From TrEMBL:
Stretches the record annotates as Disordered: 1-58
Protein known as: Uncharacterized protein
Biased composition range(s): Basic and acidic residues: 11-23
Source organism of the structure: Ephemerocybe angulata
Pfam families reported for this sequence: DUF6698 (PF20414)
Amino acid sequence: MASSSSAGQGKENEVPRNGKEVDPAPPRFGTVNKQVSKKRPLNALELGPRKRPAQQDPLVHHGRHFGRTICAFSNVHSLLLLGLSEKDIVPETQQERREHRVYRKLLKLVPGLEERLLEANGDDDGAIFDIATHKGAASARSDDTKSLKSAVIDWITPSDGEPLRPPLARNVKVDRGIKEQLRNKTMAIPGNHWPLFVYRDEEWHDDPLKAWTGLFRSKLLVYAYKHVFTSPSSVDDDPKSTRSGNARIHGMTCVTPASVAYITTQLRFALSSASIFSRTDKETDSETFYTSVLELFEDPEEQDEVKALMAWWNRQVFPSFSNVPRTIPTNSVLSKIKERRAVLKARALNERGDD
């Protein structure tokens, strides 16, 4: 006589005459099987099949670099409309000149963009580009805000091992800045007032003739710039970084004035007690601060100082970059090639003269 267990198994595997499958017996508690495919059931405690990573829209990729190095706060859609409608109009005001420059840099950043917009028919490519670029710029800004929030604590901690007094939490900003006065509205810091950290060694000179001395040349700014653009490990000159920095990913080989303004704005926010980086934030007034820095960099009368500043930044971040042409040794192979080319050009000119 068959046992009850074997009888139960017989019934479990039995198929009725009408051809319909019998529902399996309820599983034991804690071992629910989820049917992933007809070939192999998946236990609830097992990992599911790995999803293929979603391919990022190239426009989002461009948007990240656009926000960091060209314009952190902009209405891309109106910028595109303005650029397309005023191609032959000479900008007159400082705002119009800035928008025109940003538009030209945007076209250079995204090859074929202008042709694509001009040829757009039913598809609203302008709106699509606006959304994608805004998404890229916003995500980059959020990533940088999050990473700088904790990194800045390491940079302002005394190098002699003494702790910060009062101590500051790495991931909580409520204790940073002059929060109480700002919260009670007894003190307000407008965006066009610049903090001391923008100066080398935090030394500000009251003498107008020394206003550029040390300006935007502080160690904190260089640390923050390297952290975002080259890699966090490059702040300590550590060559062991395994990830490509944002500069290499986007083919960036020199510092731009807008990128310095962006990093200065990010660092200013990181040192404040504000928790949300927003262009409408009245506590930090970040957009006004960013714009005031950018206006200085774009002032035609300050270009000699700005060029000297950018050269200084390139030596800090991209040591191989140089605006100075390299001299060729007189007895080198390269000098002989140049000499040969000059002889051939002179010979060709003489032959044309004879004709």
